[in-house]
Write a structure and sequence with these properties.
The chain has 296 residues and is mainly beta. 8% of the residues lie in helices and 43% in strands. The chain has two domains: 100 residues, Sandwich (Immunoglobulin-like); 168 residues, Sandwich (Immunoglobulin-like), CATH 2.60.40. Strand 23 and strand 24 form a beta hairpin.
């Protein structure tokens, strides 16, 4: 009887182990971020290529070897071999080829079974050039240091000498959406002075492709109004503060020309500025100054 019971326990244990082993086997390899980027010839892509390995129930699988390779365009990847972490993610930094406009990178798993996904990237023979606005205004849209030839980071800053106390800020900027797109991975980086909170954050940047705001970069950030971490008062915004930033990328088919020009005579944003907690405007649209972005 004891022997029989021992055999049953061994059998049950084996079944459980097999079940656990099966649930940890990779069943899917999916792209998380990094596909469809545009960069300068021979330059490193702005965002890493990231894949996720999951089991049949969608749970991340750690310890899976992922092989990265270049299949078209003559570019390179910084590390050809990566291993998934506890989150099931594996990452590679990629560089575009020096000449070919079309570039492709491949990620393949090597544990248990082979799964493959392909990332696409392109480069443009043209570059983005942003000219900061002339002095003036209370809020200014300036070129950020993280800008590259194929992408521009625009920082909404408090102008030197300005004294602004506000609860929310934002702007709507009409632009030529045939030349640029809003970055998919990090379209907006919220600032910290006007704390937007979390889950969700009171900060958003979008570039609609249809509707009345088609072709208008719409962005804004507010302090969190309710719930945990809510802010109930206006906040003084020190001069030089970066309130938030947005990132625009050049499109592969972009041709030389003006994306937007806030320096043109009489140019005023259709909607922009800052408001206090009661909704009163404390910075007018005409006090938000914008530079000029061109593809050249």
């Amino acid at each position: 009887m004891r022997k029989s019971r021992l055999g049953l326990l061994v059998w049950v244990g084996a079944v459980l182990l097999l079940g656990c082993s099966h649930s940890r086997n990779p069943a899917t390899l999916t792209k998380v971020v990094g596909d469809g980027q545009v960069g300068a010839p021979g330059g490193e892509l702005a965002h890493p290529l990231v894949v996720k390995v999951a089991d049949g129930e969608g749970r991340p699988v750690a310890g899976v070897t992922v092989l990265w390779s270049v299949v078209e365009g003559g570019g390179s990847v910084k590390a050809a071999i990566a291993t998934t972490g506890e989150d099931g993610l594996a990452t590679a930094l990629a560089r575009l080829g020096p000449a070919a406009a079309s570039n492709r990178y491949q990620a393949s798993t090597q544990n248990w079974a082979i799964y493959t996904v392909t990332f696409n990237a392109t480069h443009s023979p043209f570059t983005l050039s942003y000219t900061d606005p002339p002095p003036g205004g209370k809020l200014r849209l300036l070129r950020g240091a993280a800008s590259t030839p194929s992408s521009v980071v625009l920082e909404l800053q408090v102008a030197p000498g300005a004294s602004v106390s506000a609860y929310s800020v934002g702007f709507n900027l009409p632009l030529d959406a045939s030349r640029v797109s809003l970055d998919r991975a990090t379209p907006m980086i919220p600032g910290t002075v006007l704390d937007p909170g979390k889950s969700p954050a009171a900060a958003l940047a979008v570039l609609p492709i249809s509707g009345p705001l088609k072709g208008t970069l719409v962005s804004g950030q507010s302090q969190k109004a309710s719930g945990a971490g809510a802010v109930t008062t206006d906040t003084l915004l020190p001069a030089g503060t970066v309130l938030y930033s947005v990132k625009l990328n050049i499109l592969p088919a972009a041709t030389p020309g003006v994306v937007f020009d806030g320096t043109a005579a009489g140019s005023v944003l259709p909607s922009a500025g800052a408001r206090d907690r009661l909704g009163k405007t404390v910075v007018e649209a005409g006090e938000v100054v914008v530079g000029k972005l061109v593809v050249k």
